[in-house]
Amino acid sequence: MHSYKCQSIDHILDKTELVVNIYPDMETDFRERYSNYLRSMKQRIYDTYLGYNELEDERKFVNQQAMKTPGRRGEIIKSEEIDKEFSRRYSEHQKSSELL
Predict the structure, then answer these.
(1) Predicted local confidence at residue 36, as pLDDT
(2) CB 81: neighbour CB atoms within 10 A?
(3) In Å, what is the CA distance from 78 to each residue of 49, 54, 90?
């Protein structure tokens, strides 16, 4: 019989930090490419139900993927970048509303 040893959360977090520290350039590159990809997505016009929901659909897909494989760095980064993109678009919308 095999005995399985449970890993502590601290051990898993240490590995995650190690991976992030080893590949900072790859993470930065991934964030930039994914951010550019998100900017190309269409999202419905605020305060109406007209238009596309590509960005919202991407958020749903990333959240579903994160539930299937929790703790993956890629899904964490994608979720952060989607939140940033929504914030950026909302800020732009607010600024354009103030100008009118």
Answers:
(1) 92
(2) 21
(3) 25, 14, 18
Which of the residues in the chain have pLDDT under 70?
A: 1-22, 45-51, 100
pTM over 0.70: no
DSSP for 27-84, please give it: HHHHHHHHHHHHHTS-BPPTTSS-S-BHHHHHHHHHHHHHHHSTT-HHHHHHHHHHHH
Distance, CA of 44 to CA of 25 (rounded, Å):
33
Distance CA 42, CA 3 (A): 51
pLDDT at 1: 47
For 91-95, the CB contacts below 8 A with 24+ separation are 93/46
